[in-house]
Amino acid sequence: MNKKAVATGFFLLSFLFPLRASAASFSNIYVFGDSLSDQGNVFNATGGAIPPSPPYSEGSFSNGLVWVDYLAQDLGLEVNPFVGNVDLTEGINFAFGGATTGVENTISLTFPQLPPLPGLEQQIDFFTNLPPVADPDALYIIWAGANDYGPTDGTFVPFEDPDTTIVNISQAVTSLANVGAQNIMVVNLPDLGKTPVSLNTPESEELSALVDAHNAALEELSESFDPALNLILFDVSEGIDQLFAAPQEFGFTNVTTPCLLVQSCVANPDEQNQYLFWDDRHPTTAAHQYVGDLALAALNAEDPTGVPEPASAMGLLAIGALGTGSVLKRKKRDRSCQVLVKTDLK
User: Fold this and answer.
1) 207 and which of 52, 193, 273, 345 could share a cystine (Cβ 3.0–4.6 Å)?
2) Which residues neighbour 117 within 8 Å (Cβ) at sequence distance 6 or greater?
3) Residue 92 β-bridge partners
4) What is the pTM of this model?
5) Average of pLDDT values for 17-45?
């Protein structure tokens, strides 16, 4: 049957750490998307120009690992960037910062002097042109759409409704399924109106409404696929909303200011862990870890055969809560850093 990942609040995450080995056993991970999932594709493709390291961690649009790093570690798997990677026996990350759900890439359209970078459509093509048949036991992840809607300094014109984006995501899922992918996780969008680049701007409320429409359409889209497809809709939006509502409960003291704009934060890794945002639209690695844990919780909730390792009673209660929660039917800045903070790098 068509599976839908259970959305759960971040307040549960502290109880989930003992349960990390209980998710379904996947053979590999393949990732498609934008800078939120990019482990080094843009960095490798641009010879280390974007994102510059420092201040960014080498390869990621953050100050450390991104959420798919944490999820892969928790699942005991390995996933590596596509650029420069030819080992098909390990998971591959095809996500490129700047990718839209189509063929456009906002980094390429902002910095045309750089090598052309792909959108989601080309990423899917890269994969479907590699193996003759996709591994049915692997986990395939699609998280894209933010660059379709968010502000950009380049020539890309953001979409005003989710129609094209949803069609593109539908085609991506269909293309993967057509080559044999069976386990496909599709991630919805957090509130883009609350990112520092958009917060307190006239466009903030409009972006928030657009994300709501996107997420609702994504939910409806799930009903159109073959019920035999294990389509997992990961409702990251609800978890991020709860983090915004009570950040201190999750160890964050600032959810509005980019760490890169605060000298003490850039110089202090401990302070960095208290910030939700690294730049004006990308999360810190601490926030990425929360997303990775939430994704693991969603996979646990979707695995009817997964048996938790011995855990505390609170851990077991957390799993119970997962089953009854809401559901989504779901370091000093140089000039180059200042430029990047102003550009659309998602």
Assistant:
1) 193
2) 42, 45, 96, 97, 98, 99, 105, 107, 108
3) 30, 80
4) 0.83
5) 83
